[in-house]
Description:
The protein has a two-stranded antiparallel ribbon with strand order 1-2. It is extended. 45% of the residues lie in helices and 3% in strands. The chain is mainly alpha-helical.
Amino acid sequence: MDLAFVQAGLLEKYLDTDVISAARVAALLKRRGILDGTPVYLDEETQTPIPPLCEFGRYLSTALLDETTLKDYGRVIGRLDDHLAGLDSDVLSATESDLVSYRGHRTQWQEMPVGASVWGRESFVLDDFYGFLVDRKILSRRPARLAARGRNALAPRVRSGMDIRHLTFEQYRYFRDVGLGGQLPNAQVDLTFRGWSPLRGRAGGDIALGSGARWREWSTVLLPETLLVPHVDEGSRL
C-alpha cells in the first residue's frame, strides 16, 4: 500500500490532464471539506484508492485536525500496514496477535524503539481506526479486545504521577475571574456561580502565584487576612 497526502496547492504545478482542470479539482476538494494533509491510501500495483482506508482519511479530515496531525495519523496506519505486509496480512485482516506483534516492533524491536507517549498516540489512532471500521460495518468486530472500562488493550499502562503544565497569563486570568471570581467570560457577574466568596477566591489565586509564598504559608491565608470575616452573632454560638 502506498500513502499520499492531499495538497491542493500543488495541483496547478503537477496536474496534467485534459479530463479535469486543476481549478476544478481544487474546488471539489474545498466543496467536500477535504483538508490539506488528508491521507490517501493507494494500491501499490494499480495506484487506485483503497475505499475503506480513504474513507477513514476523510473521516479524519472532518475532525478539523491540522495538516501536521492529519499526516501523522495517516502515517500510523501506513506503518502498521507495512509491518503487516511482512506477516502476509494487512490492516483489514489483522488479528490481535498481529497488532501485539506490531506493538512489540514499535516499542522494543525496531532500531529506535518509541516511548510510551508516542505509542500512546499511535494506539489511540489504531483504536479510532478500527472503531471507525466497525461503526461503518466494514469489519464485524475489532481485532483487539477492549480492556477494562472500554480501554484500548494495546495502549500503554496508565502511570500515576504529577502532570505539571504552565498556564499563560490569559489562561490564568480566565481561571481566576471565571473559575474563582464568579464572572462570565464577558466580565459580567455570573448569577449562577455557586461559590460563596469570589473576592477571597481571586485574592487567594493572586497571592498563591504572585507572592512566592510556600504552600504551607499560603494555606494559612484565611478570611480574616482578606477582611472578609462574616458577622457572627454571639448568641448563635450557644
